[in-house]
From TrEMBL:
It comes from Psilocybe cf. subviscida. ATP binds at K212. PROSITE patterns: FHA_DOMAIN (PS50006), PROTEIN_KINASE_ATP (PS00107), PROTEIN_KINASE_DOM (PS50011), PROTEIN_KINASE_ST (PS00108). The keyword ATP-binding applies. SUPFAM superfamilies: Protein kinase-like (PK-like), SMAD/FHA domain. This is Kinase-like protein. One of its GO terms (molecular function) is protein kinase activity. It holds the Pfam family FHA. Residues 183-501 form the Protein kinase domain. CDD domains: FHA_MEK1-like. Signal peptide: none annotated. Keywords: ATP-binding, Nucleotide-binding. Belongs to the protein kinase superfamily. CAMK Ser/Thr protein kinase family. CHEK2 subfamily. Residues 75-129 form the FHA domain.
Amino acid sequence: MPKSLATERLSSVSNNKPYSKSVLETCPDRSFIRAYQPSTKRQKLIHDANICAKLTTIRPDGGKDVIVLTLTKSAIIGRNPELCTYVVNDCMVSGTHCKLHAVRSPSGGVIISCEDKSRNGITLNGQHIRKSSVILMDGDILQLPNSLAFTCHHLWKEHAAKLSFFEPSQPPEPVHKRIGRYVVTSQCLGTGSFASVHLALDPKNHRQVACKSIRTKKGQEIPQVMKEVKILMTLKHPNINEIYDTEEHKKFVHIFLQLCTGGDLFTYITQATGSGSRICEAECKYIMYQLLQGLKYLHDKHISHRDLKPENILLYCPGPYPRIVIADFGLARPNSYQETLNVCGTISYLPPEGILALDNKHLGYTGMPSDCWSSGVILYIMLSAPIQRRGSHPFDNEVRPSSHWISRIQDSRHPDYSQHFPASYARADSRLKEKIIHGEVEFAKDPWSELPDGSVSRFLCQSSHMTLWVSSSAKDLADSLLFHDPQQRATVYGALKSEWILNELDDLQTLYQIRIAPNEA
């Protein structure tokens, strides 16, 4: 792939020195190069170029190199000049040593991450990391084995005060709290009404983790919460967010989870920044295959999730064809083949029987068919993304088809959602409930025209090859998962045997092994 070079070291370095070349890749229009020049318009330039972080390093000759991260371009550090944007000639450095990403976070900020792909690992703030993905905070020091050290500087929030691209950053003093053997940082990854998620360190296992701190509700005992958590700790599957450990403290339960650095599926679908990053049918199929594998594992154990939605599906690492992980089991229920009187989940993803149970407390509904309905809604949204740009909802498109449902879900993330949006959203919820109970799924001409299946074997869809229509077998699967009667609705077992999955099962399994199995080794 041809590269656009922002800078290339002109000074020669003797062959006995390990560092021979520095290559910095810019945005396609090379606009960020102007950011090196002193200018009062620097803030606008950074925003226009989507520049959100820089990594700086000092070369052996005393010069400074800068790697720029944007929302549209990743950076690769390694020894292979054909693959890497920053080349380090050292025998301890792998051909592709690590990959740096900047992605939107669910809260609207930016996540800067480093994915180790090497044999010898990386060192983050003195801690050795190997074969995992880590989040880089402002001021973090990333070091290659026996080689260069890079300092991470976040620009997304602090760029207004910076005039020079090379001005040194002054990160605030980090706040750490020790809980058990873990060190919980002040870096917040997400918040809710009763829980918050922070980045934490696990020194014993040399890894970063997510710490979910749950405040027990009034009348809810910690032993009751811990009993449910212990059940979830037994779950071990590559598409299930793994719980490593728990700690109790006063009225809080702290759950230490597998860290995912790619954001969530909702953000991935709705905030694609360029046409090349839009999700295509082949990628939808690969994501859906993983989702069904994770649900099958849960349902085999008679556990239902009951709050399945794109916001609760995390990307293990950034990038196309991601490994997805089902998360947020706060509403999960063992014995999911039994009816429950507790209605859980977001209205946009509840099945008709769940909606009826909201207003009829004596009615119950079964968890596993509810999960299948929710997965059908997710499939519909993903499949409509290429033509609608940000996806459309099968029932919640009354006002502005491509954005109304997105705004509602974004607002619902607010901790005080019910207090801030009482009247308008109550009316909208009422109309939505009505449509789910009585309405049928609408498959408009676009993107639901019948064309041959998008092929997973192409692996990465380029925008020039992306179809704006959806195959008939994909539509059939979405239709069967969104069947009104839960008794006739497709199960995860039936979905995995659908024509849409079976016609490329070998390719799906191969891709699954290539991209997921190595991470589980």
